[in-house]
Amino acid sequence: MEVEHTEIPEVVLIKPVVYGDERGYFKETFHQQRYAELGIERNFVQDNVSFSSRGVLRGLHYQWPNPQGKLLYVLQGEIFDVAVDIRANSPTFGHWVGRFLSSDNHHQLWIPEGFAHGFLVTSDTALITYKCTDLYHPADEGCVQWNDPAIGINWPLDRIEGAPSLSGKDQQGKSLADSVLEN
Q1: Which of 20, 86, 121, 158 has a CA-to-CA distance to 140 between 20 and 30 Å?
Q2: CB-based burial of residue 142 (10 Å sphere; 0-12 exposed, 13-18 middle, 19+ buried)?
Q3: Which residue is catalytic, options 35, 62, 73, 130?
């Protein structure tokens, strides 16, 4: 597999080897030893699946004090996936990484604990799956505003029609200043 360290070194883009022919393809989506060699030495305890339509924007979600690391990839469609560093003492606090993940490019994004995560669906529909390093704790969840100017995410809004579709909870996201994770 090929690995790309992003602008925030802890956020890693993984490009698995895909074995394909006229019948289809095979790829390995997780191998504990190989991922540990990349520095992803985590115990994944929960797998999730999300299905959304074009223009749906989910996030920017985080969980504290029981943070979740996420290993995410797309089974069908395409998304613009974003990770924002919200760790108070981090040299990359407030910085973001965004990458297109799709069922065509097979890329995965590793988002470690201490980051807010979100995505925008840029295809007609998208089916996403991700592994988590901690269980979901509803009382610990938080949301950073998807369009907080202090972060300045360059969402590819030209790939959707109109404004992004947000859940009621995501519409109530807080500013980055109100979402800092203190250690």
Answers
A1: 121
A2: middle
A3: 130
| 171 pLDDT more than 90 | yes
Q: Which of 35, 61, 107, 117 is catalytic?
A: 61
For domain 2-19+27-178, the CATH architecture is Sandwich (2.60)
Mean pLDDT of 6-26: 94
pLDDT at residue 128 tops 70: yes
Question: Domain locations in the chain?
Answer: 2-19+27-178
The rounded Cα 103 to chain-centroid distance in angstroms is 15
Q: What is the mean pLDDT of residues 150-179?
A: 96
pLDDT bracket for residue 183 (50, 70, 90): low
Residue 25 is among the residues annotated as catalytic for this protein: no
The strand pairing partners of 141, in sequence order, are: 63
| Mean pLDDT value across the chain | 96
